[in-house]
Amino acid sequence: MKKICKAIMLLFFVICSVYSQQNKETMVLLKTNMGDIRIKLYNATPKHRDNFIKLVNNKYYDSLLFHRVIKDFMIQTGDPNSRHATKTTQLGSGDPNYKIQAEFNAELIHKKGALAAARAGDEVNPLKASSGSQFYIVVGKTYNDNELNQIETKLNENRKKNRFREYLGKPENKALKNEIAKYQKAGNKVKLDSIGQVITKQVDEYYKNEPEIKFSEFQRNIYKTIGGTPFLDMNYTVFGEVVEGLDVVDKIAAVQTLHGDRPANDVIIISASVVSSPKISLQVKQ
User: Fold this and answer.
1) Residues 96, 218: one domain?
2) Which residues neighbour 207 within 8 Å (Cβ) at sequence distance 6 or greater?
3) Which residue from 241, 228, 249, 243 is spatially nearest to 112, judged by alpha carbons?
4) Alpha helix positions (H), 23-170
5) Residues 37 and 131 in one domain
6) Which contiguous run of DSSP H or E holds residue 274?
7) What angle in degrees, to the nearest 10, is found between the helix axes of 145-169 and 217-225?
8) Does 282 score more than 60 pLDDT?
9) C-alpha–C-alpha distance, residues 61 and 272, integer Å
10) What is the CATH number of the domain that holds 62?
11) pLDDT band for position 86 (50/70/90)?
12) Domain of 18, in residue numbers
């Protein structure tokens, strides 16, 4: 009986330990020439978390520039072409030649200090997939309730406008998209109108249960006090936040910039490193 009790207790502690480790969030330290920034990665966005950890461990971000800085908006980095780039080098299009599937979560918002993935525009990227490496840290500004109401309305309007393009961008609808392209090339307006009516009904059915974007009271209070960029919510994947070094983020955001929003004096990530991460072991000694 005692052996059974000991075995149950051991199993209980193992389960508790595994649960604790699984919910522990990974921390990454960005050492820049303007100071250190410590970032927490969210477990709720595992694809982005794991990709970021992989790149950090591979020293991908070491010596890269914050190539795009916009006051009261954000600071952006992650373009591999920025490493040792000259002042005339055009930056902003570099990546590791892959994208990451969007991981939108209504609870993860663009508050000040949020870490989010950059991406190509909706026209060429209707499913809003993230860049494989480029990310930005939110600076933003504060908003009042009236401004937040207007942003909510705009976000939902844009969402409805983009549904048709997003629906056709899904892999399972590739044949439908090709059929539309064929009729467009042939200038067959009758066929386009006909197929358009069919797709409109499909789109309405597909998105009928999709909830509208609406800021909670908690989120409103964040945007009214801490600030951020609420107009980007549910459009760009937020996958972490700054836990130390917001003053450094503010310093970077305040630097003088040249044409294209590149800092006049290079702001460099000297090194990026994982400083803590969950380690799960299920091995139990007999």
Assistant:
1) no
2) 163, 167
3) 228
4) 46-57, 145-169
5) yes
6) strand 269-276
7) 110
8) no
9) 6
10) 2.40.100.10
11) very high
12) 1-142+226-286
DSSP 10: H
Q: For residue range 164-203, what is the model confidence (pLDDT) as tens digits?
A: 888 888 888 888 888 888 989 888 888 888 888 888 888 8
Q: Are the beta carbons of 133 and 96 closer than 8 angstroms?
A: yes
**In a shared domain, residues 260 and 219:** no
Task: Quickly count helices (H) and strands (E) in the chain.
Answer: 7, 10
What average pLDDT is seen over the chain? Answer: 89
- Could you tell me if 236 and 135 lie in one domain? yes
Q: Are residues 53 and 81 in the same domain?
A: yes
Does this model's pTM top 0.90?
no
Q: Please state, in angstroms and as integers, the Cα–Cα distance from residue 101 to each residue in 51, 91, 127, 216, 236, following that order.
A: 11, 23, 8, 26, 11
On whether both 185 and 221 belong to a single domain, the answer is yes
The span from the CA of 106 to the CA of 102, in Å, is 13
pLDDT at 280: 38
Complete DSSP assignment for 151-175: HHHHHHHHHHHHHHHHHHHSGGGHH
- The number of distinct structural domains making up the chain is 2
Of all residues in the chain, the percent with pLDDT exceeding 90 is 67
Residue 4 confidence (pLDDT): 53
Contact 214, 223 (CB under 8 A): no
Is the same domain home to 131 and 24? Answer: yes
Q: Mind giving me the DSSP string for 93-109?
A: ---SS-EE-----TTS-
Residues 225-254: pLDDT tens digits? 999 999 999 999 999 999 999 999 999 999
- Other beta carbons less than 10 A from residue 97's beta carbon: 8
Domain end (from 225, 246, 264):
225
253: tokens are 């955001």
Both 136 and 212 in one domain: the answer is no
Per-residue tokens: 150: 């207007």
Query: Which token pair is 142?
Result: 């504060």
Domain boundary among 172, 199, 225: 225
